[in-house]
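Per reviewer request, we include the raw input and output of the structure prediction for the construct analysed in the revised manuscript.
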Amino acid sequence: MMISLKKGGKMSFIDVKNKKGTADKTPPAGYSTWLDFWEKKKGKKATNCEVLSCKGKADVGGHVIKSGEGSKEYILPLCYSCNNKPEEEIFKAWDNDLISVK
């Protein structure tokens, strides 16, 4: 099985946290939802929550930040439960599943 890597990097888990206060943010023009934004940028359908320990389905495109990185926002397919984790709760996801908002 071949796994493609971007820019010579290796696939790795990273620590991320929910970014609160983003419920009123609208996706860029041409995207119906943040999940639609993620799917079009990744070129694949979001089916599962991308939190490593979760088996839920992808309900929303959740705004997350990398733990310790500051305020740079990313979109990650999340189930409703994981999207509502407390802001200080850290969870793991694949680094290459994050799509930058900017």
